[in-house]
Specification:
0% helix; mainly beta; single chain; 7-stranded mixed beta sheet
């Protein structure tokens, strides 16, 4: 079984920084794209940023220049460095990864349990 475990959320003041981590574990053969989504109360889940196994990145317009997504392929881990945080960044942040399990020919789409990020004075 494959699991994604997130860490690093919390409460931060506007203008502050946080770093989220998400580690994939289990019977993993390979990982393609890894990324972060967020969902604020009353809103749909939206893509924040993602990164391919080759290192190509994609960002939502609202976080460009403030957030940086990166990954460590040896550790099966994706990171989200969030700087200059704003109150509107407050949401539950979910890790997502496209993973092929050992012994499988299929790629599965996996989600973490979510971590709360609150930006408030």
């Amino acid at each position: 079984q494959v699991q994604l475990v997130e860490s690093g959320g919390g409460l931060v003041q506007p203008g502050g920084s946080l770093r989220l981590s998400c580690a994939a574990s289990g019977r993993i053969r390979s990982i393609n794209t890894m990324g972060w989504y967020r969902q604020a109360p009353g809103k749909q889940r939206e893509l924040v940023a993602d990164i391919t196994s080759g290192g190509s990145t994609n960002y939502a317009d609202s976080v460009k220049g403030r957030f940086t997504v990166s990954r460590d392929n040896y550790k099966n881990t994706v990171y989200l460095q969030m700087n200059s945080l704003k109150p509107e960044d407050t949401a539950v942040y979910y890790c997502n990864a496209n993973i092929r399990s050992s012994g499988s020919s299929y790629w599965g789409n996996y989600w973490g349990q979510g971590t709360q990020v609150t930006v408030s004075a």
